[in-house]
Amino acid sequence: MNIEGKRSGEGFCAHKAILVNALSRALAERVVLMDLTIGRKGFLTYLKSLGGSNIVKVVPFNGDASGLRVADKRLKVVCGANTSYLDDMAWVGDKTPLTLCDVRVSPSNTVKPNLGALELSEALSRVVPFTAKEDNRPVLQSVLFKVADGKLTLVSADGYRLAVVKLDFDGDEGQVLINRDELRGVISALRRAYRVRVGFEKSGESLDGMSLVLDTELIRYKWRGADGNFPEYEKLIPADFNTFVSFDTNEAIREVSSLKVLSDSKNYPIDLTIGNGKLTMSSPDEKGLAEIPADTQGEGRIRLDGSYLADALRACGGMVELKLVDSKSPMLFTSPDYELVVMPMFAGESQKPKDEAQTAEPVKVEPETAENTEPTEPEAEMVSEAEKANAVAEAEAIANAKSEKPKHKAKRKAKEPIAVA
User: Fold this and answer.
1) Over the stretch 120-149, which tens digit does the pLDDT of each residue have?
2) Between the CA atoms of 321, 326, 327 and 330, what dihedral angle is there, to the nearest 10 degrees?
């Protein structure tokens, strides 16, 4: 943390509001002050409770306190008429994460920005939700930061969806993988920053290691890159389309919510029908139907998981263009500087009756070996036509074998996408 203030011996004086602001934006749970470690949240709560002055003085102390001789070093905090003494490891418990941040005080701190703080925050919020949740796929739990040709590209994938954001960028080329858990806290912190500078640094732990550095006027965030190679995501983005539709995401989100209420399962498929200047959304069980005006080119129909559709609409925001190849191929949502590939729920050449089983065809990013062992290098490829035909035959066989079972169970099975990644 870079605090603007004055040195006071081995300690410092600073505006309380500046110190509180920096502590609230830090991601670490422990703060190092003059070789002492204290809990960030407890220290932040204490500073907020202080009154009487806008200036806080923090200095080391190892003398008398209330008539008692103190052998160990402490922190002395003075704010107006309030004086307190903080022990080493104050507000640090057994369950406090071992993440540390340092406080550095200087007369001024200047950051030469190369990216907008809000712009970066918004970009991260559009890729982090599409990272994998499974611990056995560490590469897909990360976001790829790649700088080339004057662009900063952020990429994430979870096996079903692929998100890509491109921002204009003035900086050195490089790339690094950062785990999504490291980035979640910084999304909100960047919204409160005035300036941000993004860069890469060589990691001292290995010759080819790389770290990502984000500098703001108060905080320097630094993460060591994760090991592994990200899939060749460019190959997963379709290029040739037969159907196009542009519509307002805000209106579409409301209609998706209404269809979700009618569903009796968390996983609810939605059929999208495009043509005649409108986008029609309907549930396969014919419980609900909604139409919204749209600019259309060509006609098409496709089925996808309702929660995936809602996530896509929220990530795109505003006006979005949806591009289709056919009912079995990946669909592409696009908005300015943003692309999101989503795999459909496969239902054959035409949409199948509501009581037939459905399967989801995801983006296959980590194919298993013949021995079902962990792959050494994830490689992205779409499911082949032969595999799709096998999936259809298997789904039809399952539907025929279970035709005697109650109808509501078949419908519930129809709404669960099956991952193959």
Assistant:
1) 999 999 999 999 988 888 899 999 999 999
2) -60
CB 315 within 8 A of CB 300: no
- Cα(5)–Cα(109) distance, rounded to whole angstroms? 10
Contact indicator for 186, 120 with CB cutoff of 8 Å: no
Location of structure tokens 């602001």: 21
Angstrom distance (rounded) from CA 369 to CA 117? 42
**Residue 203 to residue 133: CA distance in whole angstroms:** 26
Residue 46 CA, distance from chain mean position = 31
Within 10 Å of residue 233's Cβ, how many Cβ atoms? Answer: 21
Backbone angles phi and psi of 180, in degrees to 5: -60, -30
The answer to whether the CB of 210 falls within 8 A of the CB of 223 is: no
Q: Tell me how far apart the alpha carbons of residues 293 and 129 are, in angstroms, rounded to a whole number.
A: 28
- Phi, then psi, of 153 in degrees rounded to 5: -110, 125
pLDDT digits (tens, 9 = 90+) for 267-304: 789 999 999 999 999 988 888 899 999 999 999 999 99
- Closest by CA to 109, choosing from 244, 14, 238, 24, is 14
pTM above 0.70, yes or no: yes
